[in-house]
From TrEMBL:
<keyword id="KW-0489">Methyltransferase</keyword>
<dbReference type="GO" id="GO:0003723">
    <property type="term" value="F:RNA binding"/>
</dbReference>
<feature type="binding site">
    <location>
        <position position="19"/>
    </location>
    <ligand>
        <name>S-adenosyl-L-methionine</name>
    </ligand>
</feature>
<dbReference type="GO" id="GO:0070475">
    <property type="term" value="P:rRNA base methylation"/>
</dbReference>
<keyword id="KW-0808">Transferase</keyword>
<feature type="binding site">
    <location>
        <position position="164"/>
    </location>
    <ligand>
        <name>S-adenosyl-L-methionine</name>
    </ligand>
</feature>
<keyword id="KW-0949">S-adenosyl-L-methionine</keyword>
<comment type="similarity">
    <text>Belongs to the RlmJ family.</text>
</comment>
<feature type="active site" description="Proton acceptor">
    <location>
        <position position="164"/>
    </location>
</feature>
<comment type="function">
    <text>Specifically methylates the adenine in position 2030 of 23S rRNA.</text>
</comment>
<feature type="binding site">
    <location>
        <position position="100"/>
    </location>
    <ligand>
        <name>S-adenosyl-L-methionine</name>
    </ligand>
</feature>
<dbReference type="Pfam" id="PF04378">
    <property type="entry name" value="RsmJ"/>
</dbReference>
<dbReference type="GO" id="GO:0036307">
    <property type="term" value="F:23S rRNA (adenine(2030)-N(6))-methyltransferase activity"/>
</dbReference>
<keyword id="KW-0698">rRNA processing</keyword>
<protein>
    <recommendedName>
        <fullName>Ribosomal RNA large subunit methyltransferase J</fullName>
        <ecNumber>2.1.1.266</ecNumber>
    </recommendedName>
</protein>
<feature type="binding site">
    <location>
        <position position="42"/>
    </location>
    <ligand>
        <name>S-adenosyl-L-methionine</name>
    </ligand>
</feature>
<feature type="site" description="Interaction with substrate rRNA">
    <location>
        <position position="4"/>
    </location>
</feature>
Length: 279
């Protein structure tokens, strides 16, 4: 979807959940000395400036990182995320927010590899500029779903695949199920993290049912809504993690109530944490 740019939404409450989950998985993969591969299907520009017209237009970052920046929560996966944002803002003021590619670049080891796909020409150029010349990090101006077919499985046979479409095209829901099934057949040992918005509860649960019936084992559902369900409009978001680290569910049991307390509007939020399919 070439009309979509994540710069308008960077740092919002949905990014907080997505990036906490992403960073927790990367930290787990780093426990082994063996290198891993990170694959990002919808990479965006990779990094965003708070003062930009895009981020200031709706000020969505104020619903997420704006409420967390500079805090200590006592929850390791949240505090690590906040610390990483802080390390990218050395003046102490929140001037920039990292997209998922920059989070990976900041957290990876020299031996870990990344492959980033982005179709939007402007964001592709910005992403390429952020990455620079690196043998371990490659940027592809390529359709997300074609990139999954062309670039998986990675030689490392271990890693994280982040799937994060805009969902502005309803077909994305069906496409994700098919793409996951195909990718899982080729790379069943990988961890997949799929972001989804909560726009309308019935549609969300239908999507969960489709994923649960996709023939993919060991799916963990993580969800945080900052507002009660409504008929229209985004009230929350979630992550479906395939082959999650065994530590992730316990970490999220601690993190979700804290995120709900800090980010939900008027205490009206809700969380969900469940095993969508068994191991």
């Amino acid at each position: 979807m070439l009309s979509y740019r994540h710069s308008y939404h960077a740092g919002n409450f949905a990014d907080v959940l997505k990036h906490c989950t992403q960073l927790a998985i990367i930290d787990y993969l780093k426990r082994k000395d063996k290198p891993f591969c990170y694959h990002d299907t919808h990479s965006g520009a990779g990094s965003y400036t708070i003062a930009s017209a895009e981020m200031q237009k709706n000020g969505e970052y104020q619903s997420g990182i704006g409420k967390l920046y500079g805090r200590r929560t006592g929850i390791s996966i949240i505090d690590h995320y906040i610390d990483l944002i802080g390390s990218l803002n050395p003046t102490g003021r929140l001037n920039g927010y990292p997209g998922s590619p920059q989070i990976m670049l900041s957290a990876r080891r020299p031996t870990d590899r990344a492959q980033l796909t982005e179709l939007h020409p402007t964001d592709y150029a910005l992403l390429q500029s952020l990455v620079g010349k690196s043998k371990k990090v490659k940027v592809y101006q390529q359709d997300a779903w074609q990139g999954l077919k062309a670039l998986l499985p990675p030689p490392e046979k271990r890693g994280l695949v982040l799937i994060d479409p805009s969902y502005e095209v309803k077909q994305d829901y069906k496409t994700i199920v098919t793409a996951l099934q195909q990718a899982y057949k080729r790379f069943s040992t990988g961890t997949y993290a799929i972001w989804y918005p909560v726009l309308e509860r019935k549609a969300t649960e239908q999507f969960m049912g489709q994923l649960a019936n996709a023939g993919v084992r060991n799916m963990l559902r993580i969800e945080h809504c900052i507002l009660p369900d409504v008929e229209r409009g985004m009230t929350g978001s979630g992550m479906i993690v395939v082959n999650p680290p065994y530590t992730l569910k316990a970490d999220m049991e601690l993190a979700l109530p804290v995120l709900d307390k800090l980010l939900s509007e008027g205490g009206a939020g809700s969380t969900a944490l469940e095993q969508l399919t068994e191991e």
